[in-house]
Design a protein that fits this description.
The chain is of the alpha/beta class. The chain contains 15 helices and 24 strands. Bound molecules: nicotinamide-adenine-dinucleotide. Nicotinamide-adenine-dinucleotide (NAD) binds next to helix 8 and helix 9.
Length: 501
């Protein structure tokens, strides 16, 4: 149990390879920064190609280790349930590390950590329910069946906003399938991953089944994707990194899933209840300081309620407490990196110069804590048209664009008019209208009268530039399996060697 656990002021985190914590071979490190103070708080091992090779070989060797290769699927499921229990016991400790790295609210990260075990229970339960088939073919002398084998070594590459949750979306089905995994967390939020990986050893997973390489995308992520012994790549991150990973994997004919960004529309129809939809709009964009792939960063609101909605929204966020994410009273924390802060502030200038109206916020907040933290006001733009950059580009910060529409068809056209298609929501009390929207919206997930709901039971992923493939749900385990068809000749004679049998 982690009751009473506190962080040391500075900490050093190594790589985790073959069940051992180990420094990078070249002895290099990089700093992890606390977004609340803007100062470094931990030192992380900076891996390079030689460390990538060591981790992939450990994962490849673990595939052949009888302790993992020959374990029954039921026992693999039991190991997964055990690790789920350990994650729950260590939830507070792991969430504290995540908050220190990425500055998101403790309430949010602890909520995620307490939910993550469900993925291990769910996929652990599926491990022994993967069945092949006996196939009744026309080859009467043959017994034909299929079986599903682990695809091999999986590279799991993740961003900084929800490190352990997004890793789990890959790791839980991959382990249930019998694969081994090399995790590459974001250089901005790595510390929780090392502590997390150690729990797999504690649960009884053999060495090399779960490995972690910390460091930069070009120095670790790229050689990991390119490594000949990596069989599948699961990536969550931005479009630039996603395209680079896709190209590198194509070059080597590896399977890939890509969970990328979004510019998701949150559509408010004229009949919606303003009190409820203001909360829905806030949860879509400001709850995680806008640092969520599914951020509802465009609110599309019917012209008849536009002014009333904006007035209530501005009142609501004017009351929101921005501050230290570990304080339970805080509602909006800092953004995670200095670059993110600059990016968010740059979009304030871009939007203003494009003719949008700054209805609230737009400034850095320097009166919190040391004054050096990366805090920015929740920001609302009105008079936004969908062709503006602030409506088309992912900002990944607390910036909301409010766009007016006059009828359902116009709302659908605007909603779909971006390169992205990750998520969308519609707020209405009219069931027929709700179904019209759910059918027409180009998005991998659509909510009706809700926002930011996900479940381990349900696929999540993007249309268009928001990605390829899905994570979550029963089908996911098959992404980490490959099918083998076996023909057994029941006769005593070999078929004609010159004719396709
Ligand atoms: P990022 O693309 O900069 O980095 C993601 C990870 O990829 C990091 O670990 C990074 O080191 C690594 N990386 C970068 N370039 C690489 C390369 N060429 N080869 C291999 N690895 C490489 O993303 P970020 O800034 O950490 O995260 C924010 C982005 O992630 C946003 O665009 C957000 O929408 C997206 N995201 C998507 C989802 C989803 O489920 N769709 C969830 C969360 C975040």
């Amino acid at each position: 149990m982690d009751e009473g656990w506190t962080l040391a002021e500075t900490q050093r985190f190594n790589l985790f390879i073959n069940g051992q914590e180990t420094p990078a071979q070249a002895g290099e490190t990089l700093d992890s920064f606390d977004p609340v103070t803007g100062a470094p708080w931990a030192s992380i091992a900076r891996a390079r190609a030689a460390d990538v090779d060591a981790a992939v070989i450990a994962a490849s060797d673990a595939l052949a280790n009888p302790a993992w290769r020959d374990i029954s699927a039921s026992d693999r499921g039991a190991l997964m349930r055990r690790v789920g229990d350990l994650i729950l016991e260590n939830a507070e400790r792991l969430a504290t590390l995540e908050v220190r790295d990425n500055g998101k609210l403790m309430a949010e990260m602890l909520g995620q950590l307490r939910y993550i075990p469900q993925y291990y229970y769910y996929y652990g339960g599926l491990a022994d329910k993967v069945e092949g088939a006996v196939i009744p073919t026309e080859k009467t002398g043959m017994f034909v069946y299929t079986e599903h084998e682990p695809i091999g070594v999986v590279a799991a590459i993740t961003p900084w906003n929800s490190p352990l949750l997004l890793t789990t979306w890959k790791l839980a089905p991959a382990l249930a399938a019998g694969c081994t995994v090399v995790i590459k967390p974001s250089e901005h939020a790595s510390t929780s991953m090392i502590e997390f990986a150690k729990l797999f050893t504690e649960a009884g997973f053999p060495p090399g089944v779960v490995n972690v390489l910390t460091g930069y995308g070009d120095e670790v992520g790229a050689p990991l994707v390119a490594h000949p012994k990596v069989n599948r790549v699961a990536f969550t991150g931005g479009e630039v990194g996603g395209k680079a990973v896709y190209k590198a994997a194509a070059e080597r004919l590896k399977g890939v899933s890509l969970e990328l960004g979004g510019k998701s529309p949150n559509i408010i129809c004229a009949d919606a209840d303003i009190e409820q939809v203001v909360k829905g709009a806030v949860s879509g964009i400001f709850a995680a300081t806008g640092q969520t792939c599914m951020a509802g960063s465009r609110v599309l609101v019917h012209e008849s309620i536009h002014d009333a909605f904006v007035a209530r929204l501005v009142d609501f966020i004017a009351e929101a407490r921005v501050g230290d994410p570990t304080d339970p009273k805080t509602q909006i924390g800092p953004v995670a990196t200095k670059d993110q802060l600059r990016k968010v502030l740059s979009y304030v200038d871009i939007a203003t110069s494009e003719g949008a109206h700054l209805a609230f916020g737009g400034k850095q907040l320097t009166d919190i804590g040391t004054g050096n933290g990366w805090f920015v006001e929740p920001t609302v733009f009105t008079n936004v048209t969908n062709d503006m950059r602030v409506a088309q580009e992912e900002i990944f910060g607390p910036v909301l664009s409010v766009i007016k529409f006059s009828d359902d068809d116009e709302a659908i056209r605007i909603a779909n008019d971006t390169p992205y298609g990750l998520a969308a929501a519609v707020w209405t009390n009219d069931v027929a209208r709700a179904f019209k929207f759910t059918k027409a919206l180009e998005a991998g997930t659509v909510w009706v009268n809700a926002y930011r709901v996900v479940s381990y039971t349900t696929p999540f992923g993007g249309f268009k530039n928001s990605g390829l493939g899905r994570e979550g749900g029963q089908e996911m385990i098959k992404e980490y399996l490959q099918t083998k068809s076996v023909y057994v000749n029941l006769g005593k004679t070999t078929p004609n060697p010159f004719v396709l049998g």
